[in-house]
Amino acid sequence: MTSRSLSRLAILAGLGLAPVAASAAIDPVIGTWWTRENESRVQIAPCGESICGTIVWMKEPNKEDGTPKRDANNPDEAAQQNTILGLQILHSFTLDKPGKWEDGKIYNPRNGKTYRSILTVTGPDELEVEGCVLFLCDGQTWTRFKE
Length: 147
Fold this sequence. Notes:
By secondary structure, the protein is an alpha+beta fold. The protein has one helix at 3-25; strands spanning 31-34, 40-47, 50-58, 88-91, 94-97, 100-108, 113-123, 126-133, 136-144. The protein has an eight-stranded antiparallel β-barrel. It is globular, with a radius of gyration of 19 Å.
């Protein structure tokens, strides 16, 4: 085999793995989203074979004394010193179909609780974010951030 043939073979072998990683990379949930009432922005990005969401902007990232808001309600005492800005709040999702991710987790730093979550793109610039406890779910609509 020539080196050119080996290169082609390597590329073709790599393409067999590409759809798994590419499915998250091109999925319509990928991007930055305004949360309800534009209080913060969450960036959703590929995270292994899943997706993760991180708070990348907050309307009020600091307390009145100027210090950063911290994850004070986290049940893990060590994590209570983490700042809210930069906090990962979405993780462990499974792709159902493009634009719909299920069986994930969403963390609410306001109460320190983690909920089962579903993310569904409902329009070109709308994302339905659901948090569930047992069989009861509550949702909110996030809108795509456009620079």
